[in-house]
Design a protein that fits this description.
With about 290 residues, the protein is an alpha+beta fold. Helix content is about 40%, strand content about 20%. Helix 6 packs across helix 7 and helix 6 packs across helix 9. The longest helix has 18 residues.
């Protein structure tokens, strides 16, 4: 890595060997996939504290949403709170009350929704990513590269009931094969921007993400495929990354020296693109 400090999660990975074996790593991804209602990083924290958890909520959410109370003596699990220190959640087995909806504890397989597809394409602009489709052969799903031009693109946002046009710089060009289905296009987008958010193409600003372009290609691909598999899995969508990961783990007992910390944070950043109305980063705004 080009950054000198190693996140605590990666210290656990490197020094103790946690999640180094392929079976352990896939177990972690499977676990995080089951918790689409909390950030990927927080799901990992739950896994470290209480493997095998089925569903977690705060005490107030258990009462208001599911009419369940916390059992006496139940141990809270610590997760990170947005814009704050920490929050506490409790696992399903530490609650009593009405029957819990079974559909929330089982995997659902489905298609990419219009909202998810349209939102992510629209919000890519907020990080300076230009989305393009091209007529490629079957072996080329897509690619991402640093933009060599000084192009700009427009973001439309509503402010005080007035539509405002915001011009932003183009930093990266994302090209996807237009001949594929929407599901494959979506998975390709996740994979390619996974490379961007993992710093595989460097970084425009170190406070966005760390530059990690000097990594071995094998590490870069494993991180991007893990992100794609994880985000798709949390949405209940089948995706081609499973084939890559299973193939690699069948041939290798241990996974490459990836940064699990980076993978989980990148997955969380990508999930934020699925919500409408993301604001562009101020560093790329040309006019406001």
């Amino acid at each position: 890595m080009q950054n000198k400090t190693i996140p605590e999660l990666d210290k656990l990975f490197l020094e103790i060997g946690t999640y180094r074996k392929g079976t352990e790593f896939m177990e972690l991804l499977e676990f995080v996939k089951k918790f689409p209602h909390i950030a990927p990083y927080n799901a990992m924290l739950v896994h470290v504290q209480k493997p095998g958890s089925q569903y977690v909520c705060s005490a107030s959410e258990w009462r208001s949403k599911y009419y369940r109370d916390i059992k006496p003596g139940a141990r809270p699990l610590v997760i990170l709170r947005p814009f704050g220190p920490v929050a506490f959640v409790f696992e399903l087995f530490d609650t009593d009350g009405r029957p819990f909806p079974k559909e929330l504890t089982f995997e659902i397989e489905g298609d990419v929704s219009d909202d998810n597809f349209n939102n992510i394409i629209s919000n890519l602009k907020c990080d300076g990513i230009s989305y393009n489709e091209a007529d490629h052969g079957v072996s080329s799903a897509g690619f991402t590269q640093i933009s060599q031009s000084k192009r700009e693109q427009t973001i439309i946002r509503k402010k005080k009931e007035i539509q405002v046009e915001i011009r932003v710089k183009v930093l990266y060009d994302l090209v996807v094969n237009r001949n594929y289905s929407r599901e494959i296009k979506f998975a390709t987008i996740l994979h390619e921007i996974g490379h961007i958010y993992c710093g595989h193409l460097g970084t425009p600003h170190e406070k966005w993400w760390h530059a990690r372009s000097d990594l071995d290609r094998n590490i870069k691909e494993f991180e991007a495929e893990s992100i794609c598999w994880l985000v798709c899995g949390r949405l209940g969508i089948k995706n081609p990354s499973a084939r890559y990961l299973i193939g690699y783990l069948n041939s290798n007992e241990e996974i490459p020296y990836i940064s699990i910390d980076t993978v989980l944070k990148a997955a969380g950043a990508i999930e934020s693109l699925l919500r409408p109305g993301k604001e562009p980063r101020k560093e790329i705004v040309v006019n406001s």
